[in-house]
Design goal:
Radius of gyration: 23 Å
Strand content: 15-25%
Strand order of the largest sheet: 1-2-3-4-7-8-9
CATH topology of the largest domain: TIM Barrel
CATH class of the largest domain: Alpha Beta
Number of helices: 10
Number of domains: 2
Shape: globular
Bound molecules: zinc ion
Largest sheet: 7 strands, parallel
Distance between the termini: 53 Å
CATH superfamily of the largest domain: Metal-dependent hydrolases
Structural class: alpha/beta
């Protein structure tokens, strides 16, 4: 009898521990299944009634007619309110010291832009959080310091992006826009079709931007691949993966938020979001902060594919998102 009790007292804590471990495991499995079911339901709902479903109600990357967007800022504000969004950040292309057809023209126009956004905030601030920001290009030795833009124009934040890659003799390769021929010509004329040299120059420029400019958000980090279409480079190449990883390590070190940008996908110029899934998986492992953006150039696109982007990042494992509020950028839970 005594030996029975003693063996029971020996086994009881083990049994208790095992059962609590088992319960924990069971709870995790149930939680995982619920999250999977939630994702499935969301996917089905967004397919059948996309206009009714809105998961992510913020977009901090928007271009109006002040840069290369299609309409006046107020039209975007009205569209965002109609779609039930909570926040809209305008991010015109920052002025550049050379002739171009996409950025805000000059300092006076930039001042007018910031004033107009502030006026819209007064008018619609009860219904929508509105921010005045810039998407600033980083071109070493050419573009304005981001901190100077911030100080001179009182911006809410800056998205740092690379659209123009500088080669060794100082000429610039335009890697964006709908025309793939421009990308191919630039690769040929500025880099002698040396894809490794060209892509390395792109990522080195982004890394330098992260290290020297302190942009709060990094825009469409792997956009360089948009016009590649598997012709010049296979993304599996170890040297390419190394470059991207160096870039992510810099973002991690400097606390940069990396946006998940839906524009390439809805404009049918790329097969996935920027960045692509394998990069998102690495970012999740490294606990890099993210936000979602549609990079809208027209009012109807203020939230295009944001729900799908949220489903994707949830599947990858992200459980929080960085949102701009009155007091700055904060992590907010997705669930
Ligand atoms: Zn951009
Ligand atoms: Zn943009």
């Amino acid at each position: 009898m005594e030996s029975d009790w003693s063996s029971l007292s020996f086994f009881w804590p083990i049994a208790k521990k095992t059962s609590s471990l088992f319960s924990l495991l069971l709870i995790s499995i149930i939680k995982y299944q619920i999250s999977n079911i939630k994702n499935q339901i969301t996917s089905i709902l967004s397919y059948f009634c996309p206009q009714k479903l809105s998961l992510f109600k913020h977009n901090f990357h928007t271009h109006s007619a002040y840069s290369d967007g299609k309409a006046e800022p107020e039209a975007y504000v009205k569209a965002a309110i109609a779609k039930g969004m909570y926040s809209l950040g305008f991010s015109e292309h920052a002025p550049l010291p050379f002739e171009n057809n996409f950025s805000v023209k000059d300092a006076d126009t930039l001042r007018k832009y910031v004033g107009e956004i502030s006026h819209l905030r007064d008018k619609y601030g009860q219904e929508l959080n509105i921010y005045a920001a810039l998407e600033a290009d980083y071109i070493p030795g050419v573009s304005l310091e981001f901190s100077k833009l911030n100080d001179d124009f009182g911006l809410d934040y800056i998205i740092g992006s690379v659209h123009l890659v500088k080669n060794d003799d100082g000429r610039m390769w335009f890697i964006d826009g709908p025309d793939r021929e421009v990308w191919k010509k630039g690769l040929e004329n500025l880099f002698d079709n040396d894809i490794r040299a060209a892509v390395t120059a792109y990522y080195e420029q982004i890394i330098e931007m992260i290290q020297t400019q302190k942009a709060e958000v990094i825009g469409h980090i792997d956009k360089i691949m948009m016009h590649n279409k598997n012709e010049f480079l296979n993304e599996e190449e170890p040297w390419y993966r190394d470059l991207v990883m160096q870039c992510l390590e810099a973002a991690k070190e400097y606390d940069s938020i990396i946006e998940v940008n839906t524009r390439g996908l809805y404009k049918k110029r790329y097969h996935t979001f920027f960045p692509g899934r394998w990069i998102l998986i690495q970012m999740h492992k490294m606990n890099i902060p993210i936000t979602l953006s549609s990079d809208a150039h027209a009012p109807e696109d203020v939230n295009t594919l944001l729900d799908e982007a949220e489903i994707t990042v949830r599947q990858v494992g992200f459980r929080e998102m960085w949102i701009m509020r009155e007091d700055g950028w904060n992590a907010e839970p997705l669930d």
